[in-house]
Amino acid sequence: MLKRVLAIITILIIGYWLAEGLANVPFGQDKMLVGQYYLNHVKEQTGAVNAVTAVVVNYRGFDTLGEVTVLFIASTGVAALLWRRKRERTAKTPGSVVLTTGSKLLFPFIVLFGMYIFIHGHLTPGGGFPGGATIATAFLLMYLAFIVYEIPHKGFETTEGLAGMSYVLVGLIGLAIGGYFLFDWIWQTWHWGTSNLGRLFSGGFIPVIYTIIGIKVGTELSGIIDNMLKEEVKE
Amino acid sequence: MISSYYFGAIALVLIGLYAVLVKKNLLKILIGLSIMETGVNLLLISIGYVSGRSAPILSEGIGPNQAVDPIPQALVLTAIVIGVATTAMALSVAIILYEKYGTLNIEEIRRLRG
After folding, report:
1. Is residue A76 within 8 angstroms of chain B, CB to CB?
2. Which of A128, A172, B47, B94 is deepest in the core (most CB within 10 A)?
3. Which residue of A has its CA nearest to B40?
4. How do the domains of chain A map onto residue ranges?
């Protein structure tokens, strides 16, 4: 009881302190400095219509590379922590017929929608990470509906590694052509897609990189799901 | 007077902090951490808001002067993914702790170890 009261008093003090600091930050007013530059120049500099994905992939591409690295390390870490010699699905109750049939029916649609999200990252809201998470949701659905379902491990892990490597490779091609890492060579050097701005075949290397990221995130999250759903089998 | 978005974000952070400080179940602490992270993301997004403007997707009818700040949104995109990664790691640690000690109560785990 005393502990709770003390905790509540402490967090109220912290809350007052945070509110005091935020009281000088006006809500809903234009505070953009760099953001206005991005908004003004995003179309001619990157070819993307969606300013957020242009910032994520183009202007601040290093952040995304680090983010992909963090996710990769997390997936490897989960696999390393939950590694056992003999791990199998131990779920006993099969799902009802409606559940299994419905999941089978929904699976291709969810994967298709996930691919739509990451391919159209430069035009619509979304991008590689939401698209990859959607694809992982499709695999989670299959895992929950069927008691024996398992992703093909060899293929998934190879795809994940290849996707990560091709992201770095795209950046290195930019280093060779334009002089710095993650240079947008498709847009800046080839001028490919300058005439159809706002259509699918524009946006420089944003669709390429987001396809790579989408595949990588999808396989990674599916691998995390797979590792967490398996249990040790008692001999 | 503080804006309701800032107030909500601070409240979420504080609720998460309360769970981390007071709760004894490890899973509840992890839930508290996730709530805290949501609060931080909400705060970042609401700082970038400009009233009356729409999402920073410059399609027909939305020029560079009718969009909100894109930088906090890009930042939050990164923060969400990192939050998911850390939550996945923490959950697997919780699975291992339960397999090893048979409990998720942090005080009992401390006692069993010593």
Report:
1. no
2. A128
3. A18
4. 93-234
Measured between beta carbons, the chain A residues lying within 8 angstroms of B56 are 39, 50-52
Rg of chain B, C-alpha, whole Å: 19
How far is Cα A73 from Cα A223, in angstroms, rounded to an integer? 12
Q: Which residues of A touch B81 (CB under 8 A)?
A: 67, 70-71, 129, 217
DSSP letter string over chain B?
---HHHHHHHHHHHHHHHHHHH--BHHHHHHHHHHHHHHHHHHHHHHT-BTT-B-SB--TT--TTSB--HHHHHHHHHHHHHHHHHHHHHHHHHHHHHHHHS--BHHHHHHHH-
Length of chain B: 114
pLDDT digits (tens, 9 = 90+) for B5-46: 999 999 999 999 999 999 999 999 999 999 999 999 999 999
B66 close contact with A: CB closer than 8 A: no
Considering the segment(s) B1-51+68-112 as one domain, its CATH architecture is Orthogonal Bundle (1.10)
Chain A partners within 8 Å of B50 (Cβ): 28-32
CB contact under 8 A, A15 and B89: no
pTM for this prediction: 0.88
Two tokens, residue A15: 């809350």
